[in-house]
Every structure is written in C-alpha cells, then in structure tokens.
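Weekly sync, protein design subgroup
Attendees: M.S., D.O., the rotation student, P.L. (late)

Item 1: inverse folding check
M.S. brought a backbone from last month's batch and wanted to see whether the design step gives back something sensible before we order anything. D.O. pointed out we never logged the input encoding, so this time it goes straight into the notes. Structure tokens as presented (258 positions):
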C-alpha cells in the first residue's frame, strides 16, 4: 500500500529534522553516551533522540506497526507487521561532522526476505533511496539500476576485517570505506559501486536494523545480497544476530571469493 511508503517517508523526515536539531543544539555533546542499546552497544544522545522521535510519531499517528529499533529493541503494539529502525546509521560520522549518515526504516513481518518497504534517507543531502517489493527501487523518484562495471568496491578494512577483504583491495582499482552501511549498499543499487563488502574475520557485524531497508533497495535495483559464505542473506526481524554482508551488482562479481 502506498500509505505504508508514505508513513516511513514521513518517519524518516521527522528523524532527519531531529538529528539536525540535536547536532546543532548540542554540538560535541550530541555524541555523549546516554544509555545502552538493545544490542548491548552504547547509544549516544543524537541516536536516542532520533529514535524517540520515530517512536513518538508512530504512537501519536497510531500507525499499524510494531517497532523494532537499534536502541529500544522490540515494542509490541499488537500488529502483524513491524517497522525495523536504525535512527542514525553512521553515528560516528554525524557526531564528528562527516556528511555521510542516514536514517534507515523498513517494514516486514518475520524475516529479512519478506521486507516489503524500505527507505534510506541521506540526512546531510536530504536524499531518499526507497523501494517497494516487486515495484523497483528509486532515488528521489528516479528508478535505480545496478551497473557492475565501475570497478569500485566499498570494503570494510578496519582491524577486524577478514583477510580476504585486504587481498581483494589489492586487486581492484578503487576501494572506499565511508562509515554508513545503509548508504554504502545504496551505492551498489545506484550503480556507483559494484560491490559492498562487510566481512569480519571472527564473526558477523551487521544487524538487521542496519541493512533491512538497503537490502530491499539493492534487490529491487537488480542486485544480490549474500552472507559471508555467499548464501542468500536472511535474518529474523526480531533476532539479535550479526552477520557478514556482501551486496553485489551481479553474481559473477562473487567469483572473487571462490
């Protein structure tokens, strides 16, 4: 239903306004840890306030969804569908003046593969990436299509990265690591990057709140999304699991891992 898409667009807009307000009002203090999130990680003031804005809007407008968020966890409102929320993907960027961070919101029932609606909002640029299952993916109304010939890969290369990531980075012409998984996956959907690789050496890192919306956007733009062992990615909506994630413009690009 178009109403669902409009709902999450409105939520993303509300969160964006709150993020910019908090960053302007509190400055460096916006990064202050104020609580521990549902996944056991510290939550900053700007994270929590953005999430609170979304929860407030859902309740005040009586939107027909449960809520699953990075900070608060699951809020059961008695519905069969749940909005999956990362109120601020790229928190470090936002808190340190790096203009690459986003709000990510999706709607699904049980798992990642049945997500039906998703939006990733680039907060600094006020750009929307969104998708409806079976109806394509869009950037501000323009339909998205993967490319696969840019020779640019988005690869996590921090100290916890898998050795394959370092080996791959030495073979390709261009690599980037930008600090917002949702926006980086949208680069694949938009045809800017060929592949997105978050592969850690010990265990997975990304959660469903990080990538639910971007997963649908990549799929609807013609790309594929797999886990660290190249199986189709799936995660329970209410699960606390973390996984390695690879998004690619086409299956042939995955041959570098075989």
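Designed sequence read out in the meeting:
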């Amino acid at each position: 239903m178009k109403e669902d898409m409009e709902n999450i667009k409105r939520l993303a807009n509300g969160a964006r306004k709150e993020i910019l307000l908090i960053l302007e009002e509190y400055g460096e203090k916006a990064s202050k840890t104020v609580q521990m999130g549902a996944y056991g990680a510290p939550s900053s003031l700007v994270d929590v306030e953005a999430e609170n804005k979304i929860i407030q809007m859902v309740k005040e407008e009586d939107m027909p969804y449960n809520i699953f968020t990075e900070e608060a966890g699951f809020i059961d409102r008695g519905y069969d569908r749940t909005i999956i929320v990362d109120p601020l993907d790229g928190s470090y960027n936002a808190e340190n003046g790096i203009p690459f961070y986003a709000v990510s919101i999706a709607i699904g029932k049980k798992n990642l593969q049945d997500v039906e609606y998703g939006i990733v909002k680039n907060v600094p640029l006020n750009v929307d990436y969104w998708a409806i299952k079976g109806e394509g993916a869009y950037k501000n109304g323009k339909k998205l299509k993967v490319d696969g010939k840019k020779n640019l890969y988005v690869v996590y290369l921090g100290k916890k990265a898998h050795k394959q990531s370092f080996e791959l980075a030495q073979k390709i012409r261009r690599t980037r690591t930008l600090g917002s998984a949702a926006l980086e996956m949208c680069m694949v959907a938009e045809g800017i990057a060929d592949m997105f690789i978050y592969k850690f050496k010990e265990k997975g890192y990304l959660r469903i709140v990080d990538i639910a919306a971007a997963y649908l956007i990549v799929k609807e733009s013609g790309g594929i999304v797999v886990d660290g062992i190249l199986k189709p990615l799936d995660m329970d909506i209410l699960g606390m699991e973390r996984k390695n994630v690879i998004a690619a413009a086409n299956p042939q690009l995955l041959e570098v891992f075989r």
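Discussion: The chain has two domains: 2-143, 152-257. The CA atoms of residues 18 and 50 lie 6 Å apart.
Action: P.L. to compare against the previous round before Friday.
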